[in-house]
Every structure is written in C-alpha cells, then in structure tokens.
Amino acid sequence: MNWSGFTFNQWDLFTFGQWPAFEFAFSFAKDEDMDSIDNSLRRNKAGQGVFFRAFDEAGNLVTGDAENITSVVSLDGATAAEATGGAVVEISPGLYCQPLAQAETNAVYKVAVIPASATSGVRCEMVVASVGPQVVVSAGSVAP
C-alpha cells in the first residue's frame, strides 16, 4: 500500500522511498489528525533520520527553512553534540528530516535531537526517539 511516497509494512512502520540512500524507519501516532510524530530508530544503524516540524510565532508551519536549521544530538541524556549525519531536508511543507550518522543512533534507550533555526521567529520541535535493537534477518528467518 502506498500513500504519498510512504510504503507501509506489516509492522506498521513505513519507509519513505524517495531517498534510496536512506532507510528512514518511523511511525506516526495513531491519531486521525496525525498531530504528533513518533520517531523510532534502530540501534547503531546507518541511514536513519528523525522527523520534526518548524513553526512561526503564530503556530503556522514554516516552509523553505531547511538550510537555516541545524541540530544537536544527545544519546541517553549525555551532552549534546552537533548532528553529523547530513543537512536537514524538507520532505513536505513544514515537515523536516534530520539524517543521523550511525554513531548518533548508538544509544541504549533514547536519542534526543534538538533542531534550531537561524531564522528569527522560527521554532522547531525537539525529537526524542526510542531506540530498538538492530534487527538482522537471515535466509529462512522472519523479523519480529
């Protein structure tokens, strides 16, 4: 089943097929209006990213601000450091993705990503992503 470029699988996760170099795994909350984004990561796996929104002071989504947004990343509450996985990308009006380096997903419990815009009056949502084990599937086995 496809929905605006997203491919759903049987675990209720979906990947965004527009960027073959990345394997973003995330799920939206089950709300009808999809107000919140529940980011999920696999531990110590390259090619992942987290999703967040940017708003102006009136609460409207801000578009076209990706080049002005930078992020810091904290693993399990440790001191945050600048994100090194790549530049922020706008994937839909007001919805942005911060790619993460493999080392930035090597947490035991949570990864916090704190994006900030250099544009005056623009605020970005902080992301706290749950970290799950890296799933390895071999021939003849089924992923949980």
Task: Please explain how this structure is put together.
The radius of gyration is 15 Å and the shape is elongated. By secondary structure, it is mostly beta strands. Strands 4-5-13-11-7-8 form a six-stranded mixed β-sheet, with no helix packed on it. It has no helices and 13 strands. It is 0% helix and 42% strand.
CA-CA gap between termini: 20 Å
The main β sheet shows up as: 6 strands, mixed
Round the Cα radius of gyration to an integer and report it. Answer: 15 Å
**Shape type:** elongated
Low-confidence stretches: 1-34
How many strand units? 13
How much beta, percentage-wise?
Answer: 35-45%
The number of distinct structural domains comes to 1
From N to C, what is the helix and strand string? EEEEEEEEEEEEE
What's the CATH topology name?
Immunoglobulin-like
Arithmetic mean of pLDDT: 78
